[in-house]
Amino acid sequence: MSPMLPPLALAARSTVSAMGTGAAATREALHARRGGLAPCDLPGMPEGIWVGRVPGLEAVALPEALSRYVCRNNRLAEMALRTDGFAEAVAAAADRYGPQRVAVVLGTSTSGIAETEEAYARRGADGALPAEFDFTHTHDLHALPRYVRARLGLSGPAVSISTACTSGARSFLEAQVMIAAGLCDAAVVGGVDTLCRMTLHGFRALELLSKAACRPCAADRDGISIGEAGALVLLVRAEDAAPGTVALLGAGASADGHHMSSPHPEGLGAVAAMRAALAAAGEGPVDYVNMHGTGTRANDAMEGNALRALFGEGVPCSSTKGWSGHTLGASGALEAVIAAICVEDGLVPGCLGVETPDPEFGVDVAVGNRAAPVRRVLSNSFGFGGSNLALVIGRA
Amino acid sequence: MRCGIAGIGLIGPGLAGWAAGRTVLAGEVPWEPAPVALPPPAALPPTERRRTSPSVRLALAAAAEAAAGSGLAPDGLETVFASSNGDGAVVGSILEALTAPDGAISPTQFHNSVHNAAAGYWGIAMGSTRASVSLGGHDDSFATGLVQAVANVVARGVPVLFCAYDAPLTAPLDAKRPTEAPFAAALVLVPSGGVSLSVEMAVGAEETPAGAWEGLARGNPAARSLPLLRALARREAARIGLGLADGGAVVVEVGA
């Protein structure tokens, strides 16, 4: 039997997505049931789709000394650092533990690849990329944690995680492992992923994009809306945070070992990840499941099967991707923060824009907001390559 | 952090597997750099096997050799894959396709472009449902990947298969991120038993040279494993420093 990993408090958190910038806006969007998806107005994208775009992102400036990191993804990271006093909270943690004892562990699926897409379009007659294009500080996966670490003046370990759509959630598990192994005392975790042509045209090629705002769990759902998000969390040992701070109680991971892009139909890998997370969290009631729920036919059906096997109709389930879109490598982190809001507010947010939930699921799909005590939230993330990750978020 | 090494995998120019490469690294046989042959992974079903790129074949070859050498069942191992470039050939091909006005790209290439493609194919090949994480790390990918793998062994008491691999990017991206030759190294790390291994973060450390393989070690992030592999090949105790790009270092100590 594996040793238990310590529960970690979400000591500070920041989210920027189409739902809004910061906790207050995100919270208000959830309660008011106001989604952030809109018809795509970015150039060079597939026709007739909706996205969850962060307004004003292109105008965000990075500090002069870190200008080589300029790209859409690091602009979003910068925006998240400036939101809800996040950078200040990390500075206080660095004072407390020492900057070498604060790790940066971040997930992204595509980092700053939009920069490379533009560079390809500006190739010279000899086919070479423009001289000013800086691959290492934009496109490279490590550019994200390196930027955040430099910007925050930290000198602890930097880890870049890229497990497709579980990247952001996985950072929580890796931070738990690192703190348990003594590598650090605190960790900046989360995920940042931004809209790019590769992702949107890729999902179009797979014929998985919705023609409107995505409607996860709906009987007539027709696919994904892609979004962008930066979601950052400062994790510290539960005893180091104010009493009652919402915490990561457990995390569980598994692989499908089945197919690169199609989930196991019965959701065996999803069930294994959820069971592992629940076992890691120990005894306690789950009052809400925040589903991966992308809105595709196959993924949602698989997750419905997995949830029915574990909970039957006993626990309300929903996806919040109708608000934010599927924010890929950031989604697990964004939804961990949404889970914390649900615990604090006693909120089960019903799927947005869904009239009739898919009757095949056989689970309690919430389609309207419900006020109820939410002691623990199970938050799911699943990704290409058969990657599965579940988090249990609640009060320690 | 302390654990043990129970199995080793290797593939690189003139280093065709650990069994053969060990004698080269030990100085028993001269090193003759030769192009790296990348066999399609035999454990995959034919349809999946056809879809594997050189980078996936590279990672799976080293991972499978290390697992076999450990004597542990491959489907019982959690995995940590670390790569700077991921599948650069697939990403390069997509970037090329995106320059056309309609931007149409291949659905198979798209799902193969994820950084965890090698991990996904490993799970399919071995029928493994064990947890797996895929890391980047640029020039630090071997050092930070090793730290993360050992941390998982130590904190969770499970055996972990760690595989660092990198293959060259295609033109024109390769000019911005040169990578010399395909290289992969894999270690099965166990909570107890095996060759003793200690891994710590440090403020700084003198970089351990790779001797005859210095050019390779500087030209491929996964090949920064060579000083460690050389000590393992010679079965001699060693203290190895791996400097990190933004300061700090990882210090690796291996027992005889």
Automatic annotation (TrEMBL), chain A:
GO terms for cellular component: cytosol. Keywords: Transferase. It holds the Pfam family ketoacyl-synt. GO terms for biological process: fatty acid biosynthetic process. It comes from the Bacteria. One of its GO terms (molecular function) is 3-oxoacyl-[acyl-carrier-protein] synthase activity. SUPFAM superfamilies: Thiolase-like. Transmembrane segments: none annotated. Residues 1-395 form the Ketosynthase family 3 (KS3) domain. PANTHER family: BETA-KETOACYL SYNTHASE, POLYKETIDE SYNTHASE-RELATED. Belongs to the thiolase-like superfamily. Beta-ketoacyl-ACP synthases family. This is Beta-ketoacyl-ACP synthase.
From TrEMBL, chain B:
SUPFAM superfamilies: Thiolase-like. Signal peptide: none annotated. It comes from the Bacteria. Residues 34-211 form the Beta-ketoacyl synthase-like N-terminal domain. Pfam families: Ketoacyl-synt_2. One of its GO terms (molecular function) is acyltransferase activity. This is 3-oxoacyl-ACP synthase. It comes from Muricoccus nepalensis. The lineage of its organism: Bacteria, Pseudomonadati, Pseudomonadota, Alphaproteobacteria, Acetobacterales.
